[in-house]
């Protein structure tokens, strides 16, 4: 698209520009004008408002309402934030800045003096500026239309008589005021309504007659004509490098983000900071706290240009130092009027410049007469102000007065610092060696005029601020180079691409005269280099771009960001959450802006929140254990009602925050408030106010950097929630609250899913074929036929493993009914993994497997008959001297412990044992344990009768008893619901056996549509006894196995999931302690894998990375026979969780337990009524 001259390959975006200029004074206006005239798409941001001539204050009350007073001791400011004048006081110094479109040019005297030779000879002065300084100065003079003063006004005549031979008049003084005497340049453009000077003397409060050539009348006017867009009432807080490489359209993202507040920002490739000395320095300090690497010299080299001022009053000589009111014009001829604020200037041989000034009628003179000043000579000076005011009140002729302004060369050793607690800058003025000489000169003038001299109470009183971001040749001596490019700290002269400073803060030393023309000249120099940089960047960029001629018909605009913001439909509110991350306190102060449209309205992805409950986040974190300073959000997104396609019943409040610190490190905090329809929203309050977070450090190029990966929980209290609701603002806040309540109601009450069934009925085979296997039918000692599938290692592949000894085979034993190891839809199941490591693999299909189910069996039968028969078969087909590694899951783990501890299998034939969510102990979550305690299983067996195999597939014909049982199973509460009927029935009987977000959709479909066709339930009574006792018992409930600990003489590994579902991590803890107690000389391990539940330890999408390595390591150590040494210490991979934790489904109040018990008793009574 064409953006005012640059044909860039970006999608159209009103908040994206080629260059953004911050500030509109003598720096920003020059840069904006020159870039716009070069055809660059420019946006200028100005903190203040646009002032028309009629808006300037015309009396003292209006003037006071246009002033903001900032005092460090007060800790806050008085007056409107967009006030025209800002007075900064700190200790013994005072500085005045201006806020408005045009900056200081709106209310200054418009004095334009060329840069003195003495300033250019200063060692700090950049020599590179001298190459084109004269041409840049000529360009600035032409654009500002500077003119000679047409005559000597009374005030100038008085000064001419007062000065002695020690002073020399400055003949080169010109003003940026339109006198309509001199012929204007042909290339000069100005507004048609601009007037001419009428010598009223009110320049210093803003010209009410539109005669001043302020930058909004020339540079900015030309910029808008060339296509520049100006946004007023728009204060830039900070800038950060864009963390994204591409935008939402896949194009190259802009380099910089310019933040207007904590949530709103504009994007650009080039940012030019021109907010004045205080504004630019403050902005860079704020950016530094958000990770922008800047020179340590930031804020140093601050100069007040040797500026001091005084007020001379009480003279009887007509000084012409007061401005005129409108009704006085007809009485006083032009040549007798006060004239411009400053119309003469004199340079002292002592090294400073003095000027007399006319004060506007709007200035409250009483402030200058003893309130903020002290008088000389001593005497009745403190009464002079009151007496003079009474004369004016009664119509008597008052005394004459005028202001005196002096400038010189201070040491430029002042300093601007940033108070991170107050979030404001402080400043210390430079030393002024000429201060005493200036005071003596003021006193001499007062004597000659027979008046009273009122000197400022402050050691430094300045309106000419310079430095703070000094130009230099490297970052050890300055903040920017001579072209205004901001240094980074990677190397002495390297700089941040696209970040410039272009204002008075560049000037590294005192000028000694009014610095306006010097600032404009330096800005012209920077702008020339800036345009060359932009052209070079776009022409050499891989994205095809070209500079084209500007469209003469295309004009820019001036609009107020404040008015535009009020018309927006977004909703904003604050949110404060407190908690702990890895045990360390953390507080999140967030600002949420909802209804941020990042895509087209109809282009909404599945699972994403509605536009009105999705947005962006700003704010900061207080996490002092990681970073001493605040961690600021530089890129935050939030969706208050998102859904994962794998869990359509569960809704999330999803936060993702990119954080930056002053150290330069970046972090990512990602969290979810997980809302699950468990027990009709019994946990709704806790879930909707608890943010489960992960906190990670973004790794830099330095691979040696220490990484951070933490987890924790943040909560929002009832009080903070109420504050958030009160702070909410925006046109659509009621609609936002209605939509949010709808989502919560849909989740907890209606329990209506969003999206379609997880997975697809069309299960496509993998590109990688599954290894061929041999199926063995094995008849057990009790006459039942079981199955065992064998995967052999090909002889041709044996060379890949490079071992002298053939690895032992591995026997895999599934849990109850479901397949956990052989997963045809997955490319990295445990069978494939073991084969890749050279292990012959066997998969046991016991009598509880759906393919060869028994209608009458116990868990004891599996351990007594099935497992021994399978092991005998493996030993028979291999050498008798080999051993077997066993990997078992859940019920399979119970069975293998029964087999070994019951003496049915010798431990000498087992090389190692690995169990997931199982051991000789079997501890359930409170919810699962309570279900087992209730007589649900006896009732279930009563309903089933002799046919104990329950068909699971929805398409399978079932009798009335089976249908009844499946209906009851669908009604039983569970933590995660699924809109797959087979999954609902199975989880209703067992409870959730995996977290849906951990497995793939194809595996979910295969398990429920292909693998789990039926559920053998004959073993449930025995399983109930094991669950109620908490450890393996025989079918009669007797403790016949734990008493034989000596039979478990083999290496063991017990693995538990960190996100507890059915079996708690206490199962592996007790099993590991039992083995270490009875067999301390053998290696035993325990691992808790965070993020996994029950069977998803083996079938999860990330199991190959998080779980299988532990199993392979355990098997590998057993292969080489590594056990404990003489010191008796373990060699194991152990989780950081050394104590048992109940998991998420813990009843923390008797109310929750009572409601849950009543609900289950109701379900039990309903079942009994149906049976009868």
What does the model show?
The protein has 1172 residues and is α+β, with helices and mostly antiparallel strands. Helices cover 27% and strands 22% of the residues. It is built from 29 helices and 46 strands. Helix 16 (830-836) links the parallel strand 39 (810-813) and strand 40. Helix 1 packs parallel to helix 11 (516-540), helix 4 (133-144) packs across helix 11 (516-540) and helix 8 (365-371) packs antiparallel against helix 9 (381-393). The two termini are 77 Å apart.
Largest pleated sheet:
9 strands, mixed
- Rg over CA atoms: 41 Å
Helix fraction? 25-40%
Beta-strand fraction estimate: 15-25%
The helix-and-strand class reads alpha+beta
Average residue-wise pLDDT? 84
Q: Unreliable runs, pLDDT <50, ≥5 residues?
A: 1-12, 181-186, 543-550, 596-604, 757-761, 1123-1157
Q: What is the count of DSSP helices, taking H or I runs of 4+ residues?
A: 29
Q: How far do the termini sit from each other?
A: 77 Å
Based on DSSP secondary structure assignment, what is the total number of beta strands?
46
| Backbone shape | elongated
Topology at a glance:
Layout: E1 2-3, E2 6-7, E3 16-22, H1 28-37, E4 42-45, H2 60-64, E5 67-71, E6 77-78, E7 85-90, E8 93-98, E9 111-112, H3 117-120, H4 133-144, H5 154-162, E10 167-169, E11 174-175, H6 219-225, E12 229-232, E13 238-241, E14 256-259, E15 265-273, H7 276-289, E16 300-302, E17 308-315, E18 346-348, E19 353-357, H8 365-371, E20 373-376, H9 381-393, E21 400-407, E22 414-419, E23 424-428, H10 435-449, E24 452-456, E25 460-462, E26 485-487, E27 495-501, H11 516-540, E28 557-560, H12 561-566, E29 571-581, E30 584-594, E31 614-622, E32 631-644, E33 647-660, E34 666-675, H13 684-688, E35 690-697, E36 709-715, H14 718-727, H15 733-750, E37 774-779, E38 785-791, E39 810-813, H16 830-836, E40 841-845, H17 859-877, E41 884-889, H18 891-901, E42 910-916, H19 926-933, H20 936-944, E43 949-951, H21 960-971, H22 981-990, H23 1001-1011, E44 1014-1016, H24 1020-1029, E45 1052-1057, H25 1066-1078, E46 1084-1089, H26 1096-1099, H27 1103-1106, H28 1108-1119, H29 1150-1171
